[in-house]
Amino acid sequence: MNSSKPTTSFRKSSYSGGDHSNCVEIAVTADGGRAARDSKNPAHGTTHHSPTAWAAFLTSLRDGTLGH
What we know:
By secondary structure, the chain is an alpha+beta fold. It has one helix spanning about 50-65; strands spanning about 10, 25-30, 35-40, 45-50. The chain has 1 helix and 4 strands. A 4-stranded antiparallel β-sheet has the order 1-2-3-4. β3 and β4 form a beta hairpin. It holds the Pfam family DUF397.
């Protein structure tokens, strides 16, 4: 079984802009991580993030330390 394969449908953030055209879509993967893709070009590929990497990403967003 591919643990990076999405096990749920991709969804857009409720924080996306009004027209929802510039969004990142996220889906849960079998290993508890996340898959992400561009909503405008979903066929152009998906990035896969382990549960640990996804948690670190969310923490850095909350703490305001992303990219610092």
